[in-house]
């Protein structure tokens, strides 16, 4: 009988505590990073231009015909007349909310605007005309926190309010179940709440002034070829048919199973730089990229450029990608189904890179811009032609003996027609 009473008492107590759980509400007050929103209607107003404005913080770079396009992250694109690289002229600004990446074919510019892809007719740069928009084609963007805000948690995010344009620290009070312990955090190591950097594309050389397709740097996420747009989208690649710019058609989405950061085209192949290696896709059928092979490495940020049967990859340590090595690697892709490492070279803080007829340009961060003769793949480090240590180098576009460099403090252009006398010719 005694055991029976104890049993019933335990049941009653269990029921009591279980019932109380639903009514135990706790108020918590704390300082947090609170999102600032722009409504979707505001974000989707037609793209406009203005007279030339100064660049606050330069983003990705792109060259098309005689024009140099410079992104200002989340704001838009500054356009320079670069017909004389020694004297680039700031001519107009395209205001595109949430813009980070873009690509140009003929006189159409394809740009991300937060979650949308917009197509803009830029035949008249002073009067750009938005001709198409694909809504919600990209993931919801959660921008990085301002410096100094990392110690504060992030409050709840309501995507229905619009896109996030920034953060402000506020004291908030919320009611939560006292038995629940929600965790708010900002992962400084992996930058969990930041939009993927992405990055800047082509990096190849060439002498043509008039181009059908423009050229980006080695950090680009967007590239266009044979009427198809290829856009990296965190762990996916989205294909869009842009043969008719006013009526782009969403194509296949390819799951890459990795965090993809950069894309480069050489011949009939796409080379995708991911945080854990390089992926190769066959685009002989442009609308249906087919997996071919991969080259794997330790987790890192991984821009890649390709020329004449070799891929050049940089891997950078001490960043959100998690790598512990600073390397530039040369990979033999002559047998495209079986990429093979040829040689690894130690670097200081490698970012983007470019290649033009065995002239290899490596952005080594605070260690500057390094220019090599890459003819001998096994001894590239023994053939350093020039180092510019007065710049913190991030990405490059070599084209027609003019090198366009994206640095931490601006855009530099160098004349490398004479390898014995590579000279700075202008700075923005």
Please report the total strand number as a whole number. Answer: 32
Gross geometry: globular
**Global mean pLDDT:** 84
Number of helices: 2
Estimated helix fraction: under 10%
User: Separation of termini?
Assistant: 91 Å
- Name the poorly predicted regions: 1-21, 178-211
- Portion of residues in beta strands equals over 45%
Helix-and-strand structural type:
mainly beta
- The whole-angstrom Rg is 25 Å
Give a quick account of the main beta sheet: strands, pairing sense, barrel closure.
6 strands, antiparallel
Strand order of the largest sheet: 2-6-5-4-3-12
Description:
The chain has 428 residues and is mainly beta. 6% of the residues lie in helices and 46% in strands. The chain contains 2 helices and 32 strands. It has helices spanning 2-21, 40-43, and strands at 25-38, 48-51, 58-64, 67-72, 76-81, 89-95, 102-105, 108-113, 116-121, 129-134, 163-177, 215-216, 222-225, 228-233, 236-241, 249-255, 260-266, 269-274, 277-282, 290-296, 304-307, 310-315, 327-332, 340-346, 353-356, 359-363, 369-373, 384-388, 393-399, 402-407, 410-415, 423-427. The strands form 8 sheets. It has a 6-stranded antiparallel beta sheet, with no helix packed on it. The chain is globular. The chain starts with a helix and ends with a strand. The model is unreliable at 1-21 and 178-211 (pLDDT under 50).
């Amino acid at each position: 009988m005694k055991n029976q009473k104890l049993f019933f008492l335990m049941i009653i107590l269990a029921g009591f505590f279980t019932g109380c759980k639903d009514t135990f509400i706790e108020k918590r007050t704390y300082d947090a990073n609170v999102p600032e929103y722009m409504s979707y209607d505001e974000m989707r107003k037609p793209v406009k231009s203005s007279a030339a404005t100064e660049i606050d913080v330069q983003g990705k770079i792109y060259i098309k015909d005689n024009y140099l396009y410079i992104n200002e992250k989340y704001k838009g694109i500054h356009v320079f007349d670069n017909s004389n690289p020694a004297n680039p002229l700031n001519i107009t600004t395209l205001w595109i909310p949430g813009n980070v990446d873009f690509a140009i074919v003929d006189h159409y510019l394809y740009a991300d605007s937060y979650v949308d892809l917009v197509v803009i007719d830029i035949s008249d740069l002073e009067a750009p005309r938005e001709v198409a928009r694909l809504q919600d084609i990209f993931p919801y963007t959660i921008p990085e926190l301002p410096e100094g805000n990392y110690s504060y948690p992030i409050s709840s995010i309501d995507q229905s309010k619009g896109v996030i344009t920034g953060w402000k620290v506020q004291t908030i009070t919320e009611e939560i179940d006292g038995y629940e312990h929600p965790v708010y955090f900002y992962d400084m190591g992996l930058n969990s709440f930041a939009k993927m950097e992405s990055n800047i594309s082509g990096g190849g050389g060439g002498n043509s002034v008039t181009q059908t397709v423009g050229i980006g740097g080695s950090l680009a996420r967007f590239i266009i070829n044979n009427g198809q747009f290829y856009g990296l989208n965190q762990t996916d690649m989205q294909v869009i048919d842009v043969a008719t710019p006013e009526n782009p058609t969403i194509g296949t989405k390819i799951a890459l199973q990795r965090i993809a950061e950069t894309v480069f085209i050489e011949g009939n192949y796409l080379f995708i730089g991911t945080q854990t290696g390089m992926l190769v896709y066959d685009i002989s059928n442009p609308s249906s990229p087919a997996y071919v092979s991969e080259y794997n490495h330790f987790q890192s940020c991984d821009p890649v450029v390709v020329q004449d049967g070799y891929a050049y990859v940089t891997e950078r340590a001490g960043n959100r990608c998690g790598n512990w090595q600073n390397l530039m690697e040369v990979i033999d892709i002559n047998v495209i189904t079986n990429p093979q490492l040829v040689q690894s070279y130690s670097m200081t803080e490698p970012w983007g890179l470019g290649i033009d007829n065995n002239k290899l340009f490596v952005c080594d961060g605070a260690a500057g811009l390094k220019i090599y003769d890459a003819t001998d793949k096994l001894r590239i480090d023994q053939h350093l032609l020039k180092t510019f240590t007065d710049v913190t180098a991030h990405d490059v576009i070599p084209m027609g003996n003019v090198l366009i460099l994206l640095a931490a403090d601006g855009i530099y252009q160098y004349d490398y027609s004479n390898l014995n006398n590579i000279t700075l010719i202008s700075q923005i």
